[in-house]
UniProtKB/TrEMBL annotation:
The keyword Iron-sulfur does not apply. Its main location: cytoplasm. It comes from Kibdelosporangium banguiense. It is found in: Cytoplasm. This is Crossover junction endodeoxyribonuclease RuvC. The active site is at D7, E68, D141. It holds the Pfam family RuvC.
Length: 194
């Protein structure tokens, strides 16, 4: 599985491509950070993020895109910019028919470090170790994008099994309701009380 991980942001947007092999083996294909000038208009900044991500989608051809979910931020303006950047990434992926999965920061930290409260330094250290990188990714945002991709690769099989179990449970519930309705109707038609 090839995953494009994106840590969305307007000033810095981390982007990474990671391949997942058998078991928990992961390999870094590419990693970078998109930067946009603070003084630029919002539309221009979003266009720059979109253009970069679309170029990577076309170049690296991922199977899925994993984006960090905006969970909570005290600065509303920052949260809005982060959400908007994540939105243009989702649109770019959807144009190509790619599935987009969102992961919270604590999910990513827990998947990569074992603790949902790990700090940026711990995430970066584990990402380097897991991917066998000799140099730090350029920014914390780039490390976070790598962590997002790893998180998705490791969680995808579990999510697929859970979705299949939920689908089967819904089908069983539907069949059970239909049988119950048929039995109730038959009793009423036969004149017996339930």
């Amino acid at each position: 599985m090839r995953v494009l991980g994106v840590d969305p942001g307007l000033t810095r947007c981390g982007v990474a491509v990671v391949d997942g092999g058998t078991g928990r083996k992961v390999t870094c294909v590419a990693v970078d950070t998109v930067r946009t000038p603070v003084e630029a208009a919002l539309a221009e900044r979003l266009l720059a993020v979109s253009d970069f991500v679309e170029g990577w989608l076309d170049l690296h051809k991922p199977d899925v895109v994993a984006v960090e979910r905006v969970f909570s931020q005290y600065n509303v303006q920052t949260a809005m910019g982060t959400a908007q950047a994540g939105g243009v990434v989702a649109v770019a992926a959807a144009r190509r028919g790619l599935k987009v999965e969102f992961h919270t920061p604590s999910e990513v930290k827990a998947a990569v470090t074992g603790s949902g409260r790990a700090d940026k330094a711990q995430v970066t250290a584990m990402v380097m170790r897991l991917l066998r990188l000799t140099e730090r990714p350029g920014t914390a945002d780039a490390a976070d994008a790598l962590a997002l991709a790893i998180c998705h690769i490791w969680r995808a099989p579990m999510r697929s099994r859970l979705e299949e179990a939920e689908r089967r449970a819904a089908e069983l519930a539907r069949v059970h309701k239909a049988r119950l309705a048929a039995a109730t109707k038959a009793r009423k038609a036969g004149g017996t009380k339930p």
